[in-house]
Amino acid sequence: MKSFCIIGLGNFGKNLALTLAQNGNQVLVIDNVESDIDAIADHVTNAVCGDPTNEMVLRAAGVASYGCCVVCLGSDNMQESILVTLTLKELGIPKIVARASSEQHRKVLTKVGADMVVFPEKDMGRKLAYTLAKTDVFEFINFSKDHSIVELKTPRRWAGKAIKDLDVRKRYGVNIIAISKAGSSDDFEIFTDPDRVLAPEETLVIIGGNEEIEKITGK
């Protein structure tokens, strides 16, 4: 189980926290709006109402024990997000992800300690949850309510087996639509030979229902 601290419960932060929690991760949320905390408290590991720019609030919430903190403060809170990111860095958080509202904001966040900076778009909360929580998933695209395309490392149980023997469409409800060529993560074979044997470190692109994909990528 991985642990995440989500700071700021706007739409982005709330969706990110809920998706991470639904995937079995330990999730702490911090926000200074009590109604937002009350609305999510039953769905996450711990919910704290307080000013995240106050270092004592962060310390009391136990953020130092979490593996990753995501600063999800909105675009109207630029100074606050920079301050929180700096404080998290000083507290020794292993991985800090911060939301930026502009390129200039991104540069400042990076300089004060953010390991990763994102510019949220539609469904970014869910996409980020997958890339953070699942180490073998490199890319996630949700193209409809129930279906997605995922780029991931060859699952261990598939390695060394031919595509035709795996019969992934019948057994797993997904289709392999591309495979990376040997030694390359961006040069893909689009038309896959059914006799092709999958190697452990290859990158696959699969398409299928979200529930079926979750069964494959779940740890």
β content, as a range? Answer: 25-35%
**What is the CATH architecture assignment of the largest domain?**
3-Layer(aba) Sandwich
- The total strand number stands at 11
Q: Could you say what the CATH topology of the largest domain is called?
A: Rossmann fold
Number of domains: 2
Mean pLDDT: 85
Sheet/helix structural class? alpha/beta
CATH superfamily of the largest domain: NAD(P)-binding Rossmann-like Domain
Largest sheet features:
6 strands, parallel
Listing every helix as H and every strand as E from the N terminus to the C terminus, the arrangement reads EHEHEHEHEHEHEEHHEEEH
User: Which word captures the global form?
Assistant: elongated
Total count of helical runs of at least 4 residues: 9
Tell me roughly what share of residues is in helical segments: 25-40%
Which regions contain 5 or more consecutive residues with pLDDT less than 50? none
Radius of gyration: 19 Å
Order of adjacent strands in the largest pleated sheet: 3-2-1-4-5-6
Q: What's the CATH C level of the largest domain? A: Alpha Beta
What is the distance, rounded to the nearest whole angstrom, between the alpha carbons of the first and last residues? 9 Å
Write a structural description.
The chain is an alpha/beta fold and 219 residues long. It folds into 2 domains: 3-132, Rossmann fold, CATH 3.40.50; 136-217, 2-Layer Sandwich (Alpha-Beta Plaits). It contains 9 helices and 11 strands. It has helices at residues 11-22, 34-40, 55-61, 78-90, 103-112, 124-133, 163-166, 168-172, 210-217; strands spanning 3-7, 26-31, 46-49, 68-71, 95-99, 116-118, 137-142, 147-153, 174-180, 188-189, 203-209. Strands 3-2-1-4-5-6 form a 6-stranded parallel sheet, sandwiched between helices. Strands 7-8-11-9-10 form a 5-stranded antiparallel sheet. Strand 5, helix 5 (103-112) and strand 6 (116-118) form a beta-alpha-beta unit. Helix 1 (11-22) packs across helix 6 (124-133) and helix 4 (78-90) runs parallel beside helix 5. The longest helix is centred in the middle third of the chain and has 13 residues, at 78-90. It is elongated. The relative contact order is 0.12.
